[in-house]
Amino acid sequence: MRSIKIFLFLLTFALPASATDAALAKILAALSTEQSTLLYQYGTLNTWATPVEADSFWRVHQPALGAITPEQGKVLATELLNNTTLAYTIKKPSRLQALRGVFTASRLLLGLAALVAAFAAVQLIGRYLPGAWQWLLRHFYPLFRRLFSPQMLSWELLVVALAGIYLGPLIPDLVIRTIVIHVGLVLFWTQLTAILTRRYFAKQYTRIIVESFEDYNTPLEAFLYVSIPALLTSTAVWWVMQVCPDAWYPYEVIVPAMVGVFTLPPLRGMEKALSRLLFPFTHERLRAKDQRAAAYMVISLVVWVALLLLPILLPEALLVLTIFLTGAFLLISIADVIHSGGKNYIWLQLLTLGFLFAVVITGAQLELLLLTWTGMGGLLLYVLIKYWEVPVLLGWSWKNKKAWGALGMALLIWGIAVLIRSRPEWFTFFQG
User: Fold this and answer.
1) In this structure, are residues 51 and 60 in contact, taking their beta carbons and an 8 Å threshold?
2) Maximum CA pair distance of the chain?
């Protein structure tokens, strides 16, 4: 009885704080750009200036801040100061910006001029030296045939890819740098695949890659054709992450890494055993490709846990893998997607809900808001999917009732939104 009283006391004690936080969050969401700027400046003065200067700034700009009290202003200013990153944007043209644009345009024009000049030189040679091309072909044909054979071209493109990956981070322009590095990564992956498969055309080695996932090749061949190029590409992306400040490479490194892990020989031999974790009950309609997909999901889940246990957190890779697993779990939880029987269906619902709740809790523990939103978004999609699916499983038909069903779904979404607005503290998993 005493423990119940203590729990009720703590609950009632925490409600005012939650209500206050919810009110401040509503004010924060409704701030205009001018008000956010003023509060950020006020927070800066509170931190670095004297209290007299901060109070004077507040009195001068109080009309623009509306009904926000000084106490609320201090909390909001601290929140903005601690969780805002300033970005340099051009509000209006200036002389320096115009000159910067001129130099960028001049570099692009120089490159265009070189291409046009090369085209013109080729045309002039053909017009005024009609025998030049025949002479060149006669004397240099063996060299050209060797240099541009499919085998040599793959090696040459691999060298170009390495040059793009190595030198790309040195390019100052963001757009050109991104294009060069990504073209280098794509060429690196494809040409490694071409060289290892000894199939030098895209249609040929693409077919071999597909066959590696469908048991046409041995585990060793799958390792050579898929794992090695993918893992080396992931290593190249990791290297770019260390030398290039751009934000998107940490999100990309996990993609080739997972492709490489899927086709490791030990894991290929364990696919049926791994699939039993998602489909523990035998069912005659369960297909081999569904078992393989289940094995990939289990492997991804193991990697997801490993990322959490690493001494260095990789939030971007964790987020990408979470999004993949969320979509995969939502997909296999639908009865019509994988016919695995009633017992497996119930087990998949428990796994899906367990994973989504784990994502929400993990995001809160690691203070990764996007991770928590992914889990909550997955839960919302799960509820909407089951809204349409469960009545059908119970014998109901949505035929000629889809409009009413859509209206019911709108009411369901509206109810969830009202619940979130009326009880925001139930959906807040972060402390402080």
Assistant:
1) no
2) 105
- Write out the H or E segment, with its range, that includes residue 56: helix 51-65
The single residue listed with the structure tokens 């971007």 is 316
Distances in whole angstroms, Cα of residue 158 to Cα of each of 70, 227, 299 = 62, 17, 30
Each residue's pLDDT tens digit, 214-254: 766 777 888 888 889 999 999 999 999 999 888 888 999 99
pLDDT tens digits for range 128-182: 777 766 766 666 656 666 666 778 888 888 899 999 999 989 888 888 888 999 9
Alpha carbon distance 49, 53 (integer Å): 6
Cα–Cα distance measured from residue 407 to residue 136, given in angstroms and rounded to the nearest whole number: 74
pTM for the full model?
0.71
SS (H, E, C) 64-102: HHCCCCHHHHHHHHHHHHHCCCCCCCCCCCCHHHHHHHH
Question: Where do we find the tokens 């497996």?
Answer: 344
CB 174 within 8 A of CB 222: no
Backbone angles phi, psi at 311, to 5 degrees: -65, -25
